[in-house]
């Protein structure tokens, strides 16, 4: 099945995005960095990713998935090599993280559309579920591996990135054999292409649904897990072996997103409602951990926030495929993922607010906002429009 090769390539790139996450504690100790600087380092990934998403998706609608995705996969491996060389320099770390965002933006937008198009024979929603599983599995196994290597193996800021580079090489090997799924524009005699008039991004009447439903659901995709992975370990003291604990925490959080993505088939239009509801509970548990320091609250918060993000990702990709106008799936997927990566600003916002108050207050506010969104989505789901 060709879609499996596309899924593996998407997984390989996704595995690199959170390799630096547990290593933030190593960088904090070596470079004497504050929580605000570390969350900014984590979040600058989105600054590179969002423009790349917005450019790569529409470009692949015109040039084809292969011509855009393959160079992105290559650059993902090069970004990890840049990280491996940047361990002692804050400037180089920011540059490597930004570059990692750029190449991930290319592959995630184009790769998700590619998986969706290769999965059409499996019915509506199959492509969204498979892309969600590929990305969340990579997001979870990457930091789990780097956390353990960073804690117990030599060269903690080098070896994890080399392991990811090898994985990307495997993803590239299977991706180059994938078929093109886009009907390319005819070539004119002068070497250019015959470009048709620009088609609308979504079907008539669906623009409001994009802004009021798809966009907020997208933000939850990464706001939920990134908060418990990035902000909470920096604001609340963790047990000893903090690098390994953070890696396991990230693995559990994002692994939960992988496990629940398949529930989208059963939940149907209620997937996003359940996802935001589960995220509400997760933020509540994270706030309780910040207030008490009791580890069981964190043990509950991690899988709840991960599951909430995974459900929102599966629901959002499925809704994106349904709303996209013919020939515009890559562009709308890019827009959805751009909204999603705005969620990476959540840890920074929480860290700044915690500096002025306590970590408990912004986490409680986040729980309230997620609950309001769940209430907003319920009537839309009841009408069968999610």
Provide a descriptive summary of the structure in words.
By secondary structure, the chain is mainly alpha-helical. The chain has a single domain, classed as MFS general substrate transporter like domains (Growth Hormone, Chain: A), CATH 1.20.1250. The protein has 15 helices and no strands. The protein has helices at residues 2-17, 20-31, 35-63, 65-84, 90-118, 126-152, 159-175, 207-235, 242-261, 264-267, 271-292, 295-323, 329-341, 345-356, 360-382. Helix 8 (207-235) runs antiparallel to helix 12 (295-323). The longest helix is centred in the N-terminal third of the chain and has 29 residues, at 35-63. The model is unreliable at 191-197 (pLDDT under 50).
Chart the SSEs and their pairings:
Layout: H1 2-17, H2 20-31, H3 35-63, H4 65-84, H5 90-118, H6 126-152, H7 159-175, H8 207-235, H9 242-261, H10 264-267, H11 271-292, H12 295-323, H13 329-341, H14 345-356, H15 360-382
Helix pairs in contact: 1-5, 1-6, 1-7, 2-6, 2-9, 3-4, 3-5, 3-8, 3-13, 3-14, 4-5, 4-7, 5-6, 5-13, 6-7, 6-9, 6-12, 8-9, 8-11, 8-12, 8-13, 8-14, 8-15, 9-12, 11-12, 11-15, 12-13, 14-15
